[in-house]
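Reopening: C-alpha cells for the arginine complex, inputs below.
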Amino acid sequence: MKIIREFIAKTLSEEVGFPSERLLGMLKVPDSSERGDLAVPCFPFAKALKDKPENIARKLEGLFSGSEFFSSVRPEGPFLNFTYAGPVLAARVLPEILDNEETYGSGTEGAGKTVVLDFSSPNIAKPIAFHHVRSTVIGAALANLHEARGYRTERINYLGDWGTQFGKLSVAFQRWGDRDLLEKEKIRHLLAIYVRFHKEVETDPGLEEEARAWFARMEKGDAEALAFWRLFYDISLAEFRRIYARLGIRFDHFEGESRYKDDLERTVEKVTETAGTVESRGALVVDLESEKMPPCLLKKADGATLYATRDIAAAMDRWERFGFDRSLYVVASQQTLYFRQLFKVLEKMGFAWAARCHHVAFGMLQLADKTMSTRKGEVIFLDDVLDKAENLSLRAIEEKNPELADKTAVARQVGVGAIIFGDLVNRRTNDVTFEWERILNFQGETGVYVQYTHARCCAMQRKAGGIRKELFDAKLLDRPEEKDVLKSLGRFPDRVEKAAADLDPSIVAKDLIELCRAFNRVYNIEGYRFLADEPALCATRLLLARSVALVLRRGLSLLGIEAPEEM
Ligand code: ARG
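Re-run output (same inputs, fresh job):
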C-alpha cells in the first residue's frame, strides 16, 4: 500500500533526517507475517542519531502510537515492525476500487511520455509459429500496462516482409506454386514451396543465383517482381490478422521492413558519414571491434541490404515520428547480440536517443505435447494450438458445468486465456515449457484458476441480487484472512506500476494468483458465508468479493485476457 508506505517514510523522515525517497526504499516486507506487514531496519540511522539500532527502534515506535493505519507497531531488535489494521485497509481500499471500476491500478507517471513497442513481428510467408506467441502476448501486455500508467503507446508490428528470402520464394512459386492451392492452404502452401526450394537448391545451385537476381529486381522496384511479393504479403497479412483477432490483440501500425526499402541507400550513406563503415570481403560493415562485438553488416557483397540496415532506418523513422521516451523491441533472446550491435551503431551515429531503445528479451518456449510433437524443423502452428486449447476447455466446462448457456464462447475465453496466462505467469527472461495439464488446471498458477475465482465472485453477486452498499462497515472485515485479501487488493496499483517499469507482466500475473489464493482462503473459512444473515455483514462481505472480482477482471484485461462471468 503506497499510501501507508509514504506515511511511514514521511513520519520517519522528519525524525531521522533522511529523505523520504530513501526511506521508501528501505522498507521491507518481513519473511513471516507474524512479524508484521512491513519493517524498517534501524541500522542506517545509528550514525545520524548516535545510538544503537535497538534503542532507535524503541524510540521511533512512539511516533506511530496514535496512527489509525496500524493494529500494532512493535520494535523487535534493530527492526521496527508494522502491522496494518484490517478495517482501516478496508475503509481505504474498497471504496477506491468500487469508485474506479474500470481504472483501478492506473497511474500517471507516464503522462506526456510515449512508448513505442515493436512486438510479434512475424515473417511474411511463414506461419505465426508457436514460438512467436511470446513476443505477441508479452508485447501486448506491456502496451496495456504502460497505457494504464498514463503513457501514450504506439504498437508496431514490424513484419519481416523484405529480404533475400522473398527472391527465393518468388523463384519457388514460379516453379512449383499453385494459385488454387495458395487460395486454400495459404501460408501452408508458401511454407511448403519454400522448404522445397531449400531441398532442390542442394542439387541445383543455380536456383540460388536466380533468387538473388530476383530480389535485386525487387530492390530496384521492378513491377513484375513486386507483384509476387505483394501476393505473398496480402495472403499472409490476412492470416495474421485473423489470428490476432482470435487472441484479441491489436496494433496501431502494421509496418514491416519493406517500408524502408527506398531509404536504405540513404541510410547506409548516413551511417558511413557518422559512425563510419569499412569494407570487409566486399561487404559493407560497421566495425565494432573496440566494443568487443562482431561487425554489424549493412550490405552484402552483391549489394543486397540487410536486416540491420532496415532496423537502423526504422529506428530513425520512429524517433522522427514519435519522439519516444522508450522504444521497446520485444524479441527472443537469440537476438540479444544483434540488438546490442544495433543500439551501438545508433549511438555511434550520434543519436542520444539510442539510450532509450531497449531489447525486451525473453526465453524460449517449448511445448511438451506428444500429440503435437514435431519432427525437427517442422513448425507448430499457433492456430492449431489455440484450437486444441479451446477444445480442451470445452471438454472441461462440459464436465464441470453442463448447464452453462454459451459454452463455446466461454471455452474460447478460457482456452485463449490459458495460453496467454500460461506464458505471462513466467518471468519474462525464463524459458517456458507448456504442458496442457498444467496450463488448464483449475487449481494451479493458471488463467483458468483466476477466471474461475472471478466467476465465483460474480456468482455470489448474482445470487445476492444486489448489494446494499450503504450498509458497508469496514470494521466487520477484521479476520486475518480478510486482511490478506485487502492487502493484496491494496498493492495492485503498485504491482501494475512495477510491471510496466520492469517490463515484466509476470509481476501482475503472479499477483493475481496471490489474490485468488487469499480470496479462496476466506472462502474456505469454516462456517464463513458471504451471504450472511446479518444485513451489514452480508453487504460488507459482498463488497469485498465484488472488489476482488473487479481487480481480477482488470488484471486479466491488462494481460490481454477476458473474464467470463460464468464458467
Ligand atoms: N521478424 C523478426 C523475426 O521473426 C523479428 C523482428 C523484430 N523486430 C525488429 N525491429 N528487428 O525474427
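Confidence is low (pLDDT under 50) at residues 373-377. Residues 223-247 form the longest helix (25 residues). Marking as resolved unless the reporter disagrees.
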